[in-house]
Amino acid sequence: MAVIDRVTATPASALPPAVADIAERGERRGQGEACAGRAGDDGVIVQRLSRRYGDRLILEGVDLHIAPGQFLALLGRSGSGKSTLLRALAHLDQDTAGAGRITVPARRAVLFQDSRLLPWLRVLDNVKLGALGPDAEARARAALAEVGLAGRERAWPRMLSGGEQQRVALARGLVRDPRFILADEPFSALDALTRLRMQQLLLQVCERHAPAVLFVTHDVDEALLLADRVIVLESGRLSLDRLVPTDDADAGEREALRIRILNQLGVAPDAKHRAAGRQGKPSLQPTTFS
Ligand SMILES: Nc1ncnc2c1ncn2[C@@H]1O[C@H](COP(=O)(O)OP(=O)(O)OP(=O)(O)O)[C@@H](O)[C@H]1O
Ligand SMILES: [Mg+2]
């Protein structure tokens, strides 16, 4: 099937009303003006996106707008098409059949579960890969400092822990001052403590740079912790699209959303406790599904 209109430059004024409305609601929680969009940055606009592999339709007419500065978590069962959607928005699926319109900022950073560092380049040179221009080295050093790795510039990737390698991958994206960060389960291979630290780091980075974010996760609690808005992908379409109640909202509101998401994913909220013989006790583990 021919692939049409993969990238367009649709002006905000040409957006359908529903999209414009979502854009209005796009301020990051608790950040006010700091995360308002920059001039010329319309965020991410997806219109009637479809993707197929052979006979299998994976995405079926997906419409989505991510406002500048908005942190969107994408959930869905394994195989529901989350990575397919992310790859399409990163323009990493040029060989995949489909249709639809995608408008994304040119300055993007993509994070995967593994850091994808080049083993034959030192840390600083890996980060410099993301930078252009005469001040590339200075910006690469600044990005490394931002993720807490100042002093490790000359290390080889194999000398770093998994969490440190993910920090370098984040720094490699930050040197471009990205307007859009796409992350496909970036912390799922990390131990619980490192994962918490990386979540905090990502939130700090997002406060500072205010990019639109598409964050794929299997962990409902991680989604609610990080995101302003949560969507669920099911049978090729978005089956749920909700703003996350702010931190100071009634705790019951967040819990209601959590249960709604778990139900949407086909997981009984207390199934994990029953399975572990821990009924009635609070979970110490992330609430994941597959
Ligand atoms: N290159 C490919 N060729 C054929 N089928 C593919 C290809 N990539 C993905 N698929 C299929 O498309 C469907 C969606 O895959 P995708 O990787 O987007 O799912 P996902 O939601 O990210 O799953 P997971 O949570 O397990 O990562 C799956 O059934 C997968 O087998
Ligand atoms: Mg995936």
Automatic annotation (TrEMBL):
It comes from Achromobacter aloeverae. Keywords: ATP-binding, Cell membrane, Membrane, Nucleotide-binding, Translocase, Transport. InterPro entries: AAA+_ATPase, ABC_transporter-like_ATP-bd, ABC_transporter-like_CS, ABC_transporter_ATP-bind, P-loop_NTPase. One of its GO terms (molecular function) is ATP binding. It comes from the Bacteria. Residues 44-260 form the ABC transporter domain. Belongs to the ABC transporter superfamily. This is Sulfonate ABC transporter ATP-binding protein. PANTHER family: ALIPHATIC SULFONATES IMPORT ATP-BINDING PROTEIN SSUB, TAURINE IMPORT ATP-BINDING PROTEIN-RELATED.
